[in-house]
């Protein structure tokens, strides 16, 4: 369960995130949607304590991220932005993450197999394709077997097989009772994966509803999304 | 804390830049020490006089320190340039603790590396000096060697602190390399700037390396002794590290 209350972030005079309030419940996949520059990645960074909000806070089962002890056990996160050293092997990247949170070495091998990277793990990350980098990022998020997952654009760069794989993985994780929060700008994929939607535009909440609830009278989720966010830009 | 330090040590040992910066430091220091020792031996044979064998011994450290400074810069600077800092802050959101773990891991690594570089440099220089050599038991030798290990460790931590403050390897190197080249080339002893320059971190650390002579009225003299000099250097390092902590805690990642 993630609870976001009055979250606000300013960069100079620009408001990136504007009084955002919503909760993300366990047991289903919640998609986080919005046009480019709507504030999705900023919200993700605020949730993880990488950026400091001007107002408001984010709680994971009642606790702020900064107050989590060994947070990988509670929250698994994958950021869209690069967050690993190209000169280090995938295995060593996961190893230091695991060590910092006292996770066993065996868990590193396990997650590498889960994401389908066991052979590439000894190679340096700079030689990875975008899809392999995404898989490594997902492996990092799964390391601590966390009840909450935050994934920023996990579908980016994946091939069709990878997209099907992540669709099944996300549904499986939610089916195990985890809270799964995934940002995306692929509407067709979101319609297949998510049950709940949080839509933002210009940092403000535009919709907090189910997938059928947003589609409503529209022909598709894509059409409904474009109509909603066009309204939000006015 | 030990878990975080272990993670930081894994980060240090699993990138090639660590070896690329530290191994040349060791090789250059030992090689130049041997050459410096040999050249002193030749000139002393022609014109014997009063000389400090430890000056010939540790002179090469002023060059070797450049690799160590680059290591101290990259150990945090690469986290910013590659985005690893975001992964690090996600795994350990308590920024003060994360920074402390990194500083401890760097300190222990540098103590270990210095404990190789300093003896290697010492013995290379003594073999160059031949009949003019000193031994470990001679007066002041052990003290100078311990001082040299401290000097190299402090110079590395100073670089780490400044880089954390600036959050950029390039910006840090632009400041640090000219500063330490100035010291290595002896420009810090120019009479016009010496009053001030002698308190710069590397200059203050040079007394313990026998690269200056305390109370020498000539240009190489200092207004302080070896351990006071190292203390001045430690103070600079502490300020740089605290500045880094302040920046890390305050800025968005």
UniProtKB/TrEMBL annotation, chain A:
Residue ranges occupied by any ABC transporter domain in the UniProt entry: 2-227
Gene3D superfamilies: P-loop containing nucleotide triphosphate hydrolases
Keywords recorded for this protein, A-Z: ATP-binding, Nucleotide-binding, Transport
GO molecular function terms attached to this record: ATP binding; ATP hydrolysis activity
Pfam families registered for this protein in UniProt: ABC_tran (PF00005)
Lineage: superkingdom: Bacteria
Family: Belongs to the ABC transporter superfamily.
UniProt name for this protein: ABC transporter domain-containing protein
Organism annotation: Rhizocola hellebori
From TrEMBL, chain B:
GO cellular component, one term: plasma membrane
Keyword annotations: Membrane, Transmembrane, Transmembrane helix
Entry coiled-coil feature ranges: none
Ranges that cross the membrane: 57-78, 99-124, 144-163, 170-190, 227-248
Gene Ontology MF, one: ABC-type transporter activity
UniProt-recorded name of the protein: ABC transporter
Organism: Rhizocola hellebori
